[in-house]
Amino acid sequence: MNWDQIEGSWKEMKGKARASWGELTDDELTQIGGKKDQLVGKLQQKYGLEREEAERRADEWANDL
C-alpha cells in the first residue's frame, strides 16, 4: 500500500499502526494522520531510532498492509 492510500484511509489504518507500535498514543496517531514524515518522526522520538531505520520500518509496515 502506498502512503497516499494510507493517508486517505488513516482512520482504518490507525488500529494497525497501534498494533505495530504500541508506544504511540491515540492522540499521536491522530496527529500523524497517515503522513509518513510524521510517523517517522514519532518513531524516532518514541523508539530512539535513527531516521533511516525509522523510515525503513515505516515502509516495511506500509508494504505489509
TrEMBL record:
The lineage of its organism: Bacteria, Pseudomonadati, Pseudomonadota, Gammaproteobacteria, Oceanospirillales. It comes from the Bacteria. SUPFAM superfamilies: Hypothetical protein YjbJ. Residues 4-55 form the CsbD-like domain. Belongs to the UPF0337 (CsbD) family. Gene3D superfamilies: YjbJ (1.10.1470.10). Pfam families: CsbD (PF05532). It comes from Vreelandella alkaliphila. This is CsbD family protein.
